[in-house]
Every structure is written in C-alpha cells, then in structure tokens.
Design a protein that fits this description.
Strand order of the largest sheet: 1-3-2
Largest sheet: 3 strands, antiparallel
Number of domains: 1
Distance between the termini: 31 Å
Oligomer: single chain
Number of helices: 5
Radius of gyration: 16 Å
Structural class: mainly alpha
Number of strands: 3
Low-confidence stretches: 1-5, 30-36
C-alpha cells in the first residue's frame, strides 16, 4: 500500500523523484516525454495496475489518494492515457460485467509494462541518495 506523505516535504520528495524518472525516460526514448506530468502519471498508473488490475474510475481515485489530492485527474485525460499505454503494449484490457450497471474495462500490466515499471523504479531507487542529500541540506539550512 502506498505511504501517504506525513509532511509537505515528503510530497515534494516523492514528486521530485518521479520527475527524475521522467527525465531519464525521455533521454532513453521510452515514449513518456510529452510533458512531465504525463510521464509521472503513467508511472503511477503502472504501479496501481501492477498491484491490482483496475478499471479507469478506480485508477483515478487511487491517483488522487496517492498524490494527497494534489493531482485530481480529468477522466478524459486518464482514459486517453490508458488507451495510449495499451496501444504501446504497456497495458492490456478486458471488459468486465458488473451484473448491475454498465460494463467496465479492467486494465492489467503486460510484461512490457512490468519491465518499464521495474526500470522506472530502479531509476528512482538509484536517485534516492541524491534525494537524501538534498533533504539533509534542507534540514540543515532551512
């Protein structure tokens, strides 16, 4: 389960680490470079789906919760992103019948998606030392 930031600094660190991931992905041609927000959100989406296959509305709720409501996704933007990630082979989907109410599309992470998620998390992990150094600097000087 994702850890909810306890301090505004924790949220900054989380977002900064994801930004570092985005920069790496752009430099290495992984197709998440259109603007930083999209790359960061795609990484979070892959994490959500890796933990549990999910439908779009659940993904939007999880994104909102994970970012402490700093990011409230627009449904159209998320569904477009999910379709594009599926077209690139990062996700697969199937229709699920709820019995009552509308059917919903449930997304799962493909092997390529799992590899992209693993690579992104490895980058974040390698950059953690830099983040720790910045935090120590912040704590010492501010």
């Amino acid at each position: 389960m994702a850890r909810t930031p306890r301090h505004p600094r924790d949220n900054f660190i989380y977002i900064f680490m994801l930004y570092v991931f985005w920069i790496h992905m752009c430099k290495h041609g992984h197709g998440v470079c259109h603007y930083p927000g999209r790359g960061l959100i795609q990484l979070l989406i892959m994490k959500i789906i890796y933990e549990k296959p999910s439908h779009g509305y659940q993904i939007m709720e999880d994104l909102e919760r994970m970012t402490s409501k700093d990011y409230v996704p627009e449904p159209g933007a998320i569904y477009t992103m999910l379709r594009r990630m599926e077209e690139r082979g990062l996700l697969a989907s199937r229709w699920e019948s709820k019995g009552s109410g509308a059917d919903r599309r449930v997304y799962t992470l493909t092997e390529a998606g799992a590899r992209a998620l693993k690579e992104g998390l490895e980058i974040v992990k390698r950059r953690r030392q830099l983040m720790d150094d910045l935090i120590r600097f912040y704590d010492t000087h501010f």
